[in-house]
Amino acid sequence: MNQANLFEYLQKNPKERIFLVDNLKEAKRAKAVFDYLDKKALILPDIRIFRGDDTRSYLGELGEL
């Protein structure tokens, strides 16, 4: 993800509400652009839960949400 491209995209599409990225590094870069534009941004924890998983081990991550 290129921060300049994201900046330009958000300038042209100010009503975008959800933005997905590939990893934490890109999330932090995107959040920096949102902060610069004075837009609210939230980085959610990466949780991968599959059918049949014991979700008790995810209690901490789910609590963060």
Folded structure, characterized:
With 65 residues, the chain is an all-alpha fold. The chain has one domain (3-64). It has helices at 3-12, 24-36, 59-64. It is elongated, with a radius of gyration of 15 Å. The two termini are 25 Å apart. The model has no long low-confidence stretch (mean pLDDT 87).
Q: Summed up, what is this model?
A:
The chain is mainly α and 65 residues long. The protein is built from three helices and no strands.
Per-chain topology:
Blueprint: H1 3-12, H2 24-36, H3 59-64
Shape: elongated
Helices and strands, in order, run as HHH
Q: Main beta sheet, described?
A: none
Strand percentage, roughly? under 5%
Overall average residue pLDDT: 87
Low-confidence stretches: none
Class by alpha and beta content:
mainly alpha
Main attributes of the structure:
3 helices; mainly alpha; 45% helix; single chain; 65 residues
